[in-house]
Amino acid sequence: LERFAPLPLQDGFDNAGLQIGLTDAETTGALLCLDVTEAVLDEAIASGCNLIISHHPLIFKGYKSITGKDYVERCILKAIKNDIVIYSAHTNLDNVPGGVNFKIAEKIGLKNVRILDPKESSLIKLVTFVPSAQAEEVRNALFTAGCGCIGNYDSCSYNTEGEGTFRAQEGSHPFCGTVGELHHETEVRIETILPEYKKGEVIRALLSKHPYEEPAYDLYPLHNSWAQVGSGIVGELEEPESELEFLKRIKRIFEVGCLKHNKLTGRLIQKVSLCGGAGAFPIPQAVRSGADVFITGEIKYHDYFGRETDILLAELGHYESEQYTKEIFYSIIRDLFPNFALQFSKVNTSPIKYLYVKWQEKLK
To answer: Which of 137, 171, 283, 356 is at 20 to 30 A from 127, Cα to Cα?
Structure first.
């Protein structure tokens, strides 16, 4: 799960990862869910699953005592008492290709899907200097560790040949040259890009393959947008739809009890932007992208004002927009462990209910 959605890609407020339990426990099966509630824990116990994998973390804040005074504390107590491990993949799963928003796009039938609001200042550049004969080996080690990925390309680097100089001091063990003498070595300057969170892994790979006793390297912060990681997505429908037909189809696909939207203006819907859950924050980016509609789980009242001519806004409900996240967990795990016991939770954990009034009752 963390290879697919690395924990460092979660947002600053988040608490994704292992919530409760020990990683060395033998797993009897996993229950996949959106939220962890007491009913979900009871379901796991009844089905013999000692691992719960959720999208929303059970624990967001620190606790000074665990006394069962709210549902979170009761869940913590019940999980520990029954030796149940709880793991959550939240905004890290929102922010990666193939994650939550891509699953929503798949359900809608979008093509040419790309990130709506890419992460900023999350990439760095590594520069190192390697003897020409060892440059290929060092480059390959850097690529294996996670360097050199730009869009749909990997193994990206820039290489310049030059001359390096150094004088080995007493107590050193130089790879080339003689102690006390100035040495000239033909070297390759290797430049490549990497996500900042992979810095430690990359430097370890560099040091393990670089022939010099004291390898020289530089790290530069970049202000580039990371187009492959970020919030929301934008894509296109194969054929345009009217606003009303599009909203009806969305309501049906996501089983929405009450679909909220702003005023219909008669536009055709083809370019679609979206961000699951509490994802109204990239509405300005959606407008700038030229999208015809923006879909999310929650929109504040005042966010609707003044947008009628800009974009169609559609609010599905938080649970409804992210309910298919369980399918992502399933596909990741099933591909790696075909015989592992996996179950979808049958509990609808949404705390929001809808009151339906039949038309006959309205007439009374």
So the answer is: 171
